């Protein structure tokens, strides 16, 4: 049941974030170019499982993109708002597909399932 809820939550974040991004008139090209950028944080796994998990989790929690969204809206900086929406959509997409936050034991061990 919890896995389904997390996946549904991911779908909602994906859909809402995408809708809000494009309803503000932001660029398709930038959206597609940056959508997978948070996965660059997997590079930490080249150092160790622990470093990889910490970096990956930093990039795949909602805190940072929410802060970017808030800063972008409060300061009227479209670039920050765009990045915040794209980052949120990426996390929502990952959750919808069953990719979760990583445990330090292995890349395939996530808070949703074992991949």
What does this structure look like?
- The protein is mostly helical and 115 residues long.
- It has one domain (2-108).
- The chain has 5 helices and 2 strands.
- The chain has helices spanning 2-23, 28-34, 49-59, 63-75, 78-96; strands spanning 102-103, 106-110.
- A two-stranded antiparallel sheet has the order 1-2.
- The protein starts with a helix and ends in a 5-residue tail after the last strand.
- What portion of residues is helical? 55-70%
**Poorly predicted runs:** none
Order of strands, main sheet, comes to 1-2
Number of domains: 1
Q: How many helices in DSSP terms?
A: 5
The major beta sheet can be summarized as:
2 strands, antiparallel
End-to-end distance:
17 Å
Provide the β-strand percentage band.
5-15%
Radius of gyration: 14 Å
Would you summarize the structure shown here?
The chain has 115 residues and is mainly alpha-helical.
Provide the fold topology:
Elements: H1 2-23, H2 28-34, H3 49-59, H4 63-75, H5 78-96, E1 102-103, E2 106-110
Antiparallel strand pairs: 1-2
Helix pairs in contact: 1-5, 4-5
Features:
single chain, 115 residues, mainly alpha, two-stranded antiparallel sheet, 5 helices, 2 strands, 63% helix
